């Protein structure tokens, strides 16, 4: 029987083919007004970080789940799938 793998270990097997153009756009002016900032807590890839009072976003490690788009209370996130063939390639272990 195989031992269950941790999520971090599974994600380490995945490969990202990062596009030069982000597939997610974040309106940081709306982020400044947001008190809750749920993207910081709910993004499974931790693509959102806080630097002082500013929310920073890094699309390179995005898992393309769309969670950020759904939970943003200010509609500050515009999300599209990456260009064909780009983005994450899941490799299950």
Description:
The chain is α+β, with helices and mostly antiparallel strands. The protein has a domain of 60 residues: Alpha-Beta Plaits (2-Layer Sandwich), CATH 3.30.70. Helix content is 23%, strand content 22%. It contains 4 helices and 6 strands. It has a two-stranded antiparallel sheet with strand order 1-6. Strands 2-5 form a two-stranded antiparallel sheet. The longest helix has 6 residues. The mean pLDDT is 84.
CATH class of the domain at 24-83: Alpha Beta
Mean pLDDT reading: 84
Q: What can be said about the biggest beta sheet?
A: 2 strands, antiparallel
Known CATH architecture of the domain at 24-83: 2-Layer Sandwich
Cα distance, first to last residue? Answer: 14 Å
Tell me the β content: 15-25%
* Helix proportion: 10-25%
Our Rg estimate from Cα atoms comes to 15 Å
Broad shape: globular
Assign the structural class, choosing from mainly alpha, mainly beta, alpha/beta, alpha+beta, or little secondary structure.
Answer: alpha+beta
Q: State the order of secondary-structure elements, H for helix, E for strand.
A: HEEHHEEHEE
Quaternary structure classification: single chain
Number of strands: 6
CATH fold name of the domain at 24-83, please?
Alpha-Beta Plaits
Strand order, sheet with most strands: 1-6
Low-confidence stretches: none
Distinct helical segment count: 4
């Amino acid at each position: 029987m195989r031992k269950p793998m941790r999520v971090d270990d599974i994600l380490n097997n995945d490969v990202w083919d990062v596009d030069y153009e982000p597939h997610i756009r974040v309106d940081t002016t709306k982020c400044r007004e947001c008190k809750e900032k749920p993207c910081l807590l709910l993004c499974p890839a931790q693509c959102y970080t806080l630097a002082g009072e500013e929310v920073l976003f890094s699309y390179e490690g995005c898992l393309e789940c769309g969670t950020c788009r759904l939970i943003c209370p200010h509609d500050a996130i515009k999300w599209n799938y990456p260009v064909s063939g780009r983005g994450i390639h899941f490799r299950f272990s």
